[in-house]
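## retry 2 of 3
previous attempt timed out at serialization; input unchanged, resubmitting
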Amino acid sequence: MTATPQQDLTRQESTLSEAHHPGQERQPHAPTPRPGGRSARVRADVVAATLSEVAEKGYDGLTVEAVATRSGVHKATLYRRWGGVDGLIVDALTASADQPWPLPDTGDLQQDLRRITQEVFNVFTDPDLGPTPIALISAAQRSDAGAAALRAFFAARHRQAAEVAERAIARGELPTGTDGAEVVRAATAPLYYRLFVTGEPLDARTAERAADAAALAARAGLFTPAPTDEEVGAAPNTTTP
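## retry succeeded, writing output
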């Protein structure tokens, strides 16, 4: 992420820069892939610059020009490959989703969920990351493209983390049919509620309690499919006339 790409612009990039009118961004899109390591370095520099700018200035202060200056990548390249500010936000989320996330495997659902919520807590309270995670999520909610990318990011994370519930099902700890992604969503939701709705402080005990509540609910079968009308109708009537 520290390498600075060469700034030898092509004539096409210069033409695109001159033809671009401020305030008329193209639709955000994924960066155009290029072969070789230079493309990866350019993308890493741009993502790092985008995250820094968002953390410092928020969505309203984010500009292609500032990212270009900070990354060392010409703004014509940014407009061509990312389309504008929203495209930069989308790709920053995509890059975050690409980061590995080793899942816990303690042999116990409650402990696995505790480690997942502890990891969420660590990300949002890490002094090295500072305001970046909160700033990126807040910025993503400011545009349709960003919001869609944010939903995709969390959906992918929930699907990945659902493995802890699937292992619990295999151990006989959870009922068959338990929706693992919903279990993880229930465990982490109280943390995001504090971070983005109420603004209350987030602490380790809150993270632990959220995991415990989700584990108890999962064991009680609350994340299994609701019975169909046919199944309800077929159930024996045990009421007294």
